[in-house]
Amino acid sequence: MACMRTLLALLTRLPVGYASLDEVARCLHLVPLVGLIEALIVSLAFILLLGNPGIAAAVYLVLHLLVTGGLHLDGFADYVDAIASGRRGLEAVRVMKDPRRGSLAAAALAIHSILVYASASTIASARLETILAAMISSYTVACYTMVYLLAFTRPEPYAGMARALQEAAPKSITRAMIVTIACIALAALLDPLATATAVVTGIVTGEFVRRDVEKRVGFSTGDTAGFTYETVRAVALLAAAIAVSAPLGLRPHIGLPP
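Above: the chain's sequence. Below: its structure in C-alpha cell form.
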C-alpha cells in the first residue's frame, strides 16, 4: 500500500500523499498497477453514460486529464517539439526543457485528442466487458512501456529527476512484466480480442518509440517516458476500437454472410 501511494502520488493527481523518488524507484515494478487503477477510474465515464458514446468519450477525456494532471501529455508535447527541431542529444533535451510550445506540438496534441476521442466513442458503443478490457489493457501496457523505456535505454548523463528510476528499471523490468501479464489476463477474461489487439499494438509501438528515443536523444528522460505513455495509450485504444468494430464492418467485404 505504501508503494502504491507513492507511485500514485508521482504519476497521478490523486490526493494520496507525497512521492519520494527513492521509494518510487524501489516500487517501480508496480507501475502497471497504476495503469490498472487509472483504467478503472476513467471507465466510470463509460459505465455512468452507457448508451451515450459521444458524451461518454468526452467525459473520458476530462477524467483522464484530471487523473493524470496532464503530466504525460506535457512530456508528449515536449518530445514532439524535439522531433520538430531535428536536433539530437543534449540539444534535443534543451528543446524539450523549453517551456514554450511549437506549432507542431500544438497540432500533435490536437490530433492525439481527436484520435483518442474517436477511439473512445467507438469503444463506448461496445459491451461493458469490452470497454473494461480495452481500458485495462491500454493503460497497463502504456505504464509498462514507460518502465521498458527506462530499462532499455541509457540513463540521463546528468543528475535529472529520472536518474534514480533509470537505475532501478533494469532490476524491475521482469517483475513489472509479471504484473502487466496479470493485468492483461484480467482484461483477456473480459474480451480476448480487444485485449490482444491493444496489447500487441501497444508493445510494438513502445519498442518503436524506444528506438526513436535512443537514436534521437541517446538516453531516456521524464519527457520521453511521458511521450511513450501517451503514444502507446492512444495507439492501443485505436487498435482496440478497430478490433471492436471490424468484425461486423468487414463481413460484407470478405464474403462472409451478414
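Residues 31-242 form one domain.
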